[in-house]
Amino acid sequence: MPELKIGDLLVSLYDILGWSLSLLGLHSSAVSVLQKIVSGFVLANFVMLTPIFTIWVERKVAGRFQDRLGPNRVGPFGLFQSFADIVKLVIKEDITPAGADKVVFNIGPVLAVMSVVGIWAVIPFASTMVGTDMNVGILYSVAVGAIGTLAIMMGGWASNNKYALLGAFRTVSQLVSYEVPMIIALLVPTMLAGSMRMNAIVAEQQVWFVVAAPLAMLIFLISSIAEVGRAPFDLLEAESEIVAGFHVEYTGMKFGVWMLAEFVHAFTISALAAVVFFGGWRGPLAEQYPLLGVVYFLIKTYIIYLFLLWIRVTLPRVRIDQMNNLNWKFLVPLSLAVLVVTALVDKAVPVGASLGVRSLVLFLANVALILVSISLLAGFSRKLQASENISVDSG
Amino acid sequence: MVPLSWYLTFAAALFALGLYAVLARKNAVAILMGVEIMLNAVIVNLVAFWRYGNPSDIAGQAFAVIVFAVAAAEAAVGLALIISIYRRRETVMAEQIDLMKW
Amino acid sequence: MEAVSAAQIIFIVVALLTVATTFLVVTVRNLIHAALWLVATLFGIAVIFVLLDAGFMATVQIVLYIGAIAILIVFAVMLTRRVMQDVGPQSNENWWLGTIVAAVFFAAISTLLWSIRWPALPGAVVGDTVLALGRSLVDPNQYVIPFEVASVMLIIALIGSITLALPGKQSE
Prior knowledge:
The structure holds three protein chains of three kinds. By secondary structure, chain A is mainly alpha-helical.
């Protein structure tokens, strides 16, 4: 029997699972397939059960932000509120609207959850703990996320409802547009690490990439919020404009599955940001005791999640033209500029320079870029204000 | 291992189906789908030849990347054309788009 | 005949499914369904790329084809929806000719393919192919010019499609 190491608990459990399966007299390849199936099942369940907790966190924190208590009836501090909600969703009537395309209608939410859970296959929890450390990890996470757009389109179209279809149209324009700056922003850490392999990116971060690429981090977070479709980018389900967007016809647990996809997605982008920009499992003693790395990783993820929550409850919803302008006229050019500047500055730093110096130089370049873009924006907004004043006067 | 001829036959089947769509479908969008399938069959061939030829020579994959770019450009321009024709003539049926035919 | 390996079983299953979904793409009357079957086809081809040890190609296939092209096609079908609602025959009067051409093409190509002796085993993959691919695309001695030409072509296509699809200011 393989020894049980507390510092590397989960990998030890994995080995023990393989050992006990081989006791059953299975072929070694069958054992490894079964091992992977079981661990994938556990991982997917961990990911899909986190919303039970994060929804509670979300409602509690949002309540505090808005000067109220949040859920406090069911269980201590309202901790069991999510369970009550799940029970409510499950016992509600499950309606498929007349004229809906049944198969597509039902596949939609499943595909949405699948696309988000799939990203977790490449997220490294610790140096030894990663589902599959493929050499195109970052690109894979983008690719799997792109399927979510399709799921929303399917749900919106199959509902046979014009508001759902409008929501789906908005979704396409928003999600496809914001994929552009997101991918370009992810190119910056890829370039700095010299690899698309998730664990290699984490291993390169003796100095967190947020120091060397703060702008890329911000662009990634902004466009990721848009990808999730949360406030301030919740145009795809703007209640006051198009009822509830693409999921207006969904009831009961099918609606619950859409919500699950959204909450898991929000948690997933926090995890991605933690891995790519905030050093993932890195921390004191994490190399010796991978279990500590898991703890560091989850702490970082939750801190970023709270930051996203802060944005969500603070900012009002943007208009659709503002949303498109922000992307195409600001984020895309800025992300391209960041990419070019990072590449040039990184080459300009002498080869022998230490990692700290390199990060510092890149940080200064980013600050310069921020100043330039702020001054450009200020000039632009002055011009806009001037033209608005004229039109108001003449009108 | 899977023999190379299997991949090539698979790609040929895809290409033939795409060809059928281009020749027989009425709808311009469906014709475009056929073209995309044909391009994808070509990419399968390129990648298969890369793998079974000399994998250290990256030519097959580089060529496939270029074909990807061409496919993206083709889809964007093709769909823009279809939408603009639809706006003007209220149809996307290829046989009704016959201004140039006499 | 020797035993069929796991890779061969996976290939046969995936290839048959992909050809079946492609058949649905080209025959189904409802165009949205055709577009969704197209997504299944593209996904099957991504699996084939994985079997060919081209992980990068597989992910690009999903990002580009499913994430962009398939969504564009679904979008175009929805935008031209009034026409789509008719569920009459979706093939023109020359469909039988198309069938014959496609069948003859497939028969000719596959007879040709099976009469040639191909290298039986794939060559060994040396090193990181993603790295090699990236280097070759910016290497002046390799593919930097085709790569740059492709990027210029993409920009032209982008501008061209925006110009085409812009709501007409020109009088009709």
